[in-house]
Design goal:
Shape: elongated
Number of strands: 15
CATH topology of the largest domain: Rossmann fold
Order of helices and strands: EHEHEHEHEHHEEEEEHEEEEEH
Radius of gyration: 21 Å
CATH architecture of the largest domain: 3-Layer(aba) Sandwich
Strand order of the largest sheet: 2-1-3-4-5
Amino acid sequence: MIRTVIIDDEAPARQRLRKLLSGHKKLEIVGEAEDGPSALELLNREKPDLAFLDIQMPGHDGFEVLDRLEPDARPVVIFTTAYDEYAIKAFEANAVDYLLKPVPKDRLSDAISRASRILGTPASRTELENRLARLLDWMDATAVQDAPGSDHGHEQEFLEQLSIPYRDRILIVPVTDLVSVEISEGITRVFLLDRENDTPRPRLKQHIVSYTLDQLEKLLHPEDFMRVHRSAIVQQRHIKELISWFSGRFKLVLTGGHEVIASRERSKILKDRLMV
């Protein structure tokens, strides 16, 4: 039996896919998830052979879910998506299987047959792992090229301080105190130096802000701040250590001991930028 999971934030889409899959006796559906965090929990718990993975989901998108799994822990993946020209171009360039919603029955059967062949051949499985790695690098590299601040042909004013609503007041914080900005489950948090606690080792405090990561990336100076992952921006001066991590990535140890994992593609850029 091929242990299978369905990951999609739309209940009707999961129900339709479950019904279609019921006609394939080789498949055993061992779980479903409706957002990025629950998808990660499901994949780590069940370690399925095959995953039908939606792209657009709350929390983490489908690409980020895959990126957060170690390569040897990734199942065979069939992406499901509404029409998305950008994503389809990425899939086809890297020979990764995908299904457009609503999922056609004949295309589903073809995709399952290919997945079965991949699962039955170690060399094919290794090749798929390489394709998925290339896909994630493709998505990350494209995001870097399109990132705000990548075009320095014109002058732009950047923030020197942040205004952060806190209880019954608004905090005015210099951006030099900003260690990192991270998004998780759709919530953006800023990690700041805690100036109120004078301790030998710097401590951090965090606040929820209404900015998106993309908005802050446009507002923070690209010579000082770097997007190291789809879900994180760090200030270069607060990087204290680079620790080699899995699959060519770095774990960044920041001021106060805070840690962030950089994606593989951005780890390469970070290495060049810091002249490591």
